[in-house]
Amino acid sequence: MRTPLIAGNWKMHKDHRQATDLVRELDSLLADLEGVEVAVCPPFTALGEVSRLLEELSSRIVLGAQDVYPAKEGAFTGEISPGMLKALGVRYVIVGHSERREILGEDDDFIAAKVRAVMDEGMVPILCVGETLEEREDGRALSKVEGQLQKDLAPVRAEEISGLVVAYEPVWAIGTGRTATPDDAQEMNAFIRSWLAERYGEENASEVRILYGGSVKPDNAAELMAMPDIDGALVGGASLKATDFAAIARFRD
Ligand code: PGA
Question: Is 234 in the pocket of ligand 1 (CB under 6 A)?
């Protein structure tokens, strides 16, 4: 059984004070939630404070980061290493988000190096993949995602695959209010799982959590999560409001 993961990607929102306020609120709304793993991914500047607060509250919420640089240390001005994240108690690291691919020009080789670096530090990459609207309309959604998986997971071995989370995030659904239908999201997530099965074996693939992301809200979370290959959500906008994010995490209520 795959435990669903609901992860909040705060993007470039919330300074460290606002971040701790949000986490306090979330923690009290989610204190009795069972059977669902909840993660928050604040900006780097808030990770330290949020980490301390989660420990102080003995919270069930786990800590994630939004990005990482794939080197142990060195002359990489402005960058953050996997070890620095690990030292703060970070468990999940978002890798290959479409905003970084598009706005910052990250390519698949760089993303593959990040996946490797996160795993080498014993953390879990949340690898984001997804097609643009044009690619979907041209019937190229599956081949686009297949190409991303092929390149981004090149350095991952079969026995490591259960320590991976994949998030299918159609670019046209991110921040647009336009969600993929549960059937379309299921189709892609099933495709991702079958690709993983072919490459890494059925059993290994059946352990990988495959999330959906793109305008997930309290009112569409339950129908998305009901699909057999959707094992959680990567939530942007709706993760910034405690009541909305908690409602998504409580999709079974
Ligand atoms: P959204 O963002 O929920 O605001 O669409 C999702 C994401 O980018 O991870």
Answer: yes
Q: Across the chain, what does the average pLDDT equal? A: 97
User: In whole angstroms, how large is the CA radius of gyration of the chain?
Assistant: 17
Quick one: which atom of ligand 1 is closest to the CA of 99?
A: 8
Number of Cβ atoms within 10 Å of the Cβ of 77: 4
Nearest-CA residue for ligand 1 atom 2 is 236
Q: What digits encode the pLDDT tens for the residues 78-105?
A: 999 999 999 999 999 999 999 999 999 9
Catalytic residue numbers, as ranges = 97, 169
How would CATH label the architecture of 12-210+236-249? Alpha-Beta Barrel (3.20)
pTM for the complete prediction?
0.97
Rounded to the nearest 10 degrees, what angle do helices 218-225 and 182-200 cross at? 40
Taking the domains of the chain in order of start, what are their residue ranges? Answer: 12-210+236-249
Closest CA to 97 of 84, 115, 76, 70: 115
| Cβ neighbours of residue 131 closer than 8 Å, sequence gap 6 or more | 140, 141, 144, 145, 170, 171
- Confidence band, pLDDT 50/70/90 cuts, at residue 1: confident
Asked whether residue 162 carries a pLDDT value surpassing 90, the answer given is: no
Residue whose CA is at the smallest distance from ligand 1 atom 9: 236
pLDDT at 35 over 90: yes
Judge contact between 247 and 221, C-beta under 8 A: yes
